[in-house]
Amino acid sequence: MSGSARDAARRGARRAAVPALVAFAAVVTGFSGTTAAAATARPAADDWKWALPPGFPVPLVPKDNRMSKAKVELGRFLFYDPKLSGNGTQSCSSCHLQAKAFSDGRAQGLGSTGELHPRGPQSLTNVAYNTTLTWANPALVRLERQAETPLFGEHPVEMGVTDRNKARVLARFQRSKAYRARYAAAYPRVKKPVTWANTVKAIAAFQRTLISGDSRYDRLLQRKARFTASEQRGAELFFGERAECHHCHGGFNFTEQTTFVGARRERPVFRNTGLFNIGGTGAFPEPNTGAFSITGNPADMGAFRAPTLRNIALTAPYMHDGSLPTLEAVIDFYAAGGRDITEGPNAGDGRLSPFRDPLTSGIDLSPEEKADLVAFLKTLTDRGFVTRRSISDPFRRR
Ligand code: HEC
Ligand code: HEC
User: Fold this and answer.
1) Domain boundaries along the sequence of the chain
2) Beta carbons within 8 Å of 152's beta carbon, 6+ residues apart
3) Which residues make Cβ contacts (< 8 Å) with residue 317, sequence separation at least 6?
């Protein structure tokens, strides 16, 4: 950007006071109006009352897996229990740690038998609102279905439950008096409640309660907090048309793939940000070819879901393969408009990829502006979420 354009942007930034930013964010993200109306639409369950952050819509709940306190509590125990893996060493929480907003700090997931997952464990922040699940799978839309992959998957092995040990793993819960009581409470009027289907449903119900909406950004919208000058400049960049971030990371959940009660149904979008361009063909390294690996459509090569940016400061390293170690590196990557890999088997200039989304074609940012964007991203951290007792490890003594 030229010096005079930068000066103009700075002048604009100075002029915009915090209330203006609030109004601006509300317009850009549709934060107030529609979602608030949806929140009163219809109750999701029997004894279940959502305690949602202001402006958050009601999550979708499948008809055959209504929410209840007892089911959520059972799911919480199961989520944190290593008895749920074949060899008894790993739980869902081994790769989804509350302190890291339910991600785990690894570039690639490490399964119970030592196998590496090709991609990184994702944050489960607000997972109930995701239109599709995992990094890039247009076909995976239900948490109940997703849980089968870590439990029973063989490529790679995660929790290592197999046809051979399946009954034995379930018997561990059947044998426990405490678990029998929890299953019975979660599935009243069911003769034999300790089944795999009920196990998976309870875990899904628990995951739908992993809702995070009390960051400093949220408090700013409620006029309970103030931004520093740098955070505010970062917010204006984020929601502005120069950095373009909000197009893909927009809405109350900072992702364009959002669904909830009363939401308009839209076809989920996957985007190529220019991380790879092997040999100039646009290819991504196998097996991480994005939505292409599911659809086989050449235009989906390297296209991933834009993840939520809530709690993003807690979930390094970044991108599906954890290849960007810090938020600073992510901003440098977007500023460059892609990644140029100069040697090795993945060599190729991502900036020139034929599949890269035009919204990520590079941004002329000063070092100060880059720092401002990082400062803004850090306002999306919700400390209460990573310490909230109701979603914490029930086996840990306090
Ligand atoms: C070995 C580590 C590991 C374990 C154990 C594990 N996960 Fe994951 N999880 C991952 C990885 C890696 C991904 C990304 C998967 C992909 O892109 O294919 C993921 C993705 C997810 C997602 C998708 C999140 C989103 O934003 O779409 C959910 C939900 C999830 N895991 C839930 C669970 C549950 C429930 C369990 C226990 C039954 C579990 N995970 C066990 C590593 C793990
Ligand atoms: C064209 C859509 C698009 C735009 C514009 C965009 N992003 Fe992204 N963003 C994505 C996608 C897709 C991913 C996941 C890519 C992957 O894993 O390979 C992502 C990943 C990220 C991540 C890492 C998330 C994680 O969980 O690892 C951060 C941080 C991020 N973007 C911030 C930004 C910022 C800041 C901007 C503006 C400068 C921006 N994005 C602009 C689509 C976009």
Assistant:
1) 69-211
2) 159, 161, 162
3) 105, 106, 107, 120, 323, 324, 325, 326
Residue nearest to atom 39 of ligand 1 (CA): 92
pLDDT category at 2 given cuts 50, 70, 90 is: very low
- Residue whose CA lies nearest to ligand 1 atom number 37: 92
DSSP assignment of 36-99, as one string? HHHHTS----SS----PPTTPPPPP--TTS---HHHHHHHHHHHT-GGGSTTS---HHHHSBGG
Q: Which CATH architecture has domain 69-211?
A: Orthogonal Bundle (1.10)
Q: Write out pLDDT tens, residues 135-163.
A: 999 999 999 999 999 999 999 999 999 99
pLDDT digits (tens, 9 = 90+) for 187-212: 999 999 999 999 999 999 999 999 99
Report the range of poorest mean pLDDT among 197-201, 238-242, 306-310, 393-397.
393-397
Q: Please say if the pLDDT value at position 164 is more than 50.
A: yes
Residue 101: CB within 6 Å of ligand 1?
Answer: no
Pocket of ligand 2 (CB under 6 A): 135, 243-245, 247-249, 271, 273, 275, 304, 306-307, 309, 312, 315, 318-320, 327, 330, 334, 357, 359-360, 373
Report pLDDT for 18: 38
Q: Is 95 in the pocket of ligand 1 (CB under 6 A)?
A: yes
pLDDT bucket at 398, cuts 50 / 70 / 90: low
**Ligand 2 center–CA 19 separation, angstroms:** 27
How many whole angstroms separate alpha carbon 275 and alpha carbon 301?
11
Nearest CA to ligand 1 atom 42: 121
CA distance 398 to 388: 13
The type of residue at 205 is A
What is d(CA 316, CA 24) in angstroms, rounded to the nearest whole number? 29
Check if 248 has its Cβ closer than 6 Å to any atom of ligand 1: no
